[in-house]
Amino acid sequence: MLQLLYTVIFGQMLVIVSFLFKTPVRKLVIVTLDRVKRGRGPVVVKSVAATLLVVLASSLYSISKIQRRALDAAVVNPTDQVLVSKHMLEASLMGFVLFLSLMIDRWHHCIRELRLLRKAMEAAKKQSRSFEDGKSVGAAEHKALVEEIATLKPKIEKLESEREVKASKAKALEAEVEALRKQSEGFLMEYDRLLADNQNLRSQLQAIDHSSSHSVNKKSM
Question: What is the pLDDT of residues 135-150, one digit of tens each?
Answer without folding.
Answer: 665 667 778 888 888 8
